[in-house]
Amino acid sequence: MTRIFGKRVTCRKRGWNGRSVGSFLLGSFLLGSFLLWMLMFVPPGLAAQSFEQFDKSFTLIGNWDTRIRNPDDEERGNCGGRLGDYGEKLLNCSIPTDQLPLNSRAEAWLEFADHRMSPTLAECALPTIPTIFGAGVYIWSFPDHLIFQYSDNAVGLITREIWMDGRGHPQARFLFQNGHSIGWWDGDDLIVESTNFTFDPDGMDDHLHMATSVRKKVTERYQIVDENILRLIITLEDPTFLTRPFKYAFSLYRSPGGIEPAWENCDPEASRNEVYFAYPGAKYGAD
User: Fold this and answer.
1) Percent of the chain scored above 90 by pLDDT?
2) 48 Cβ contact list (under 8 Å, min separation 6)
3) Among 56, 92, 101, 184, which is most exposed with the fewest C-beta within 10 angstroms?
4) Cα 127 to Cα 147: distance, rounded to the nearest angstrom
């Protein structure tokens, strides 16, 4: 028995006033561990955008269409006169590939690659940026991030998160198929920067089948021309395959309605067999 602040308190085997000392210590340990985890793993200084910055994103919300079409079977896209595995002319490239500053490693890749190693054609993998930019986009806005959704009728719905809370990119060892994207405002222009990509055999264009490496960096600048038109300026960097950064642009037009429906299921075996049996080019013979 002892006195604390003039009052008599009995110390029992279970602890002070009947409370378990073990429970108290366990609770203290768990609380301390949680606080340590917060300090070690939660990025410091993250905050939502200001109200003024958030208001800027309202003009972006909605459905945007590139209006890229194939009227009367007209060829869409510039594949630079490149040929496929059996000598056919490649069509429908999503970027002006005749202007790509490819280095000797990239040219060697195009000689080496074949349709059967395409993750999009043969393995049901979703295409990545910058290829999907030509599909149009539906934009959602939240205080700390934007969501960009692309409807690709061939492979399904592709979703990107653009973090607007001031965070940086993760360490280089953490890789993602569509990279890690952060955004900020430059005046009235939205800038989106994406890094931390996985190696992708179709990462530059899924019709040319030009790869990108983990060094790929994509910067998007969205300029508001008027309430119905956006200009998208894209800068593609990848020192593994390009001699210099490559910049190109196109326009997006506001469209009514929501995002278009897309396929959600794809069977890799069926997709692979379609390439094996329907495509006549077989550069390396049977697998």
Assistant:
1) 43
2) 54, 143, 144, 164, 165
3) 101
4) 17
Model confidence at 196, pLDDT cuts 50, 70, 90, reads very high
- The whole-angstrom separation of Cα 133 and Cα 230 is 13
- The CA distances from residue 50 to 141, 144, 166, 202, 223, in Å, are 13, 10, 11, 38, 20
- Unique residue bearing structure tokens 């590139």: 66
Secondary element (H or E) of residue 220: strand 217-226
Sign of the alpha-carbon dihedral angle for 90, 96, 102, 106: negative
Strand partners, 254: 64
Maximum Cα–Cα distance for the chain, whole Å?
97
Query: By the 8 A CB rule, do 142 and 58 touch?
Result: no
> For residue 250, which phi and psi values (nearest 5 degrees)?
-155, 175
Query: Is the model more confident about 45 or about 227?
Result: 227
Amino acid identity of 284?
Y
241 within 8 A of 106, measured Cβ to Cβ: yes
23: pLDDT strictly greater than 60: no
| Predicted model pTM | 0.78
Q: Find the helix or strand (DSSP H, E) in which 153 lies.
A: none
Dihedral over Cα of 227, 132, 93, 222: its sign: positive
Report residue 165: phi and psi, to 5°: -100, 15
3-state secondary structure of 43: coil
CA–CA gap between residue 239 and residue 234 (Å, rounded): 16
